[in-house]
């Protein structure tokens, strides 16, 4: 893996600054776990029969970003990235996907999520989560997405080690 260029979260900051920084730190962690790998290596699965791969995680996190920011705060009917239906499993079918395609989709969704968060007057902003049929706050969304990254970055650690033995961070 390349040199660690992630910016750590502040030790002192507002709730919003802290959530934003932790989210960006975890986004950077996923990108770092994929650095320097070919498309074939990114599609490598270390625990058959699981379809989990680093590329699948990037695709999945594009779906997570869209489902929790764009669909909640802008357009409840926005289509998912990799399926016409709300099928999060479709992101794990990475057999024909490339790094360029997956990262372009994920990076676009991350930027869209950042715009939504920056434009919000406060963490108390609410939006409608169509899958739950309930109102949720921006605070809850940021914590939920942060937890998704934390869980999947743990998977990324194991997957990267299985590809080339790289461990850490």
**Rg, alpha carbons:** 16 Å
Helix content: 40-55%
Number of helices: 5
Give the mean pLDDT: 92
Indicate the CATH class.
Mainly Alpha
Low-confidence stretches: none
Tell me the strand order in the biggest sheet: 1-2
- The total count of strands amounts to 2
Structural class: mainly alpha
Give the domain tally: 1
In the CATH scheme, what's the topology name?
Four Helix Bundle (Hemerythrin (Met), subunit A)
Shape: globular
First-residue to last-residue Cα separation? 10 Å
- Residue fraction in strands: under 5%
Oligomer: single chain
Instruction: List the secondary-structure elements in sequence, H or E.
Output: HHHHEEH
Explain what the structure shows.
The chain is mainly alpha-helical. The protein has a single domain, classed as Four Helix Bundle (Hemerythrin (Met), subunit A). It contains 5 helices and 2 strands. Helix 1 (15-34) packs antiparallel against helix 3 (54-73), helix 3 (54-73) packs parallel to helix 4 (99-119) and helix 3 packs antiparallel against helix 5 (138-164).
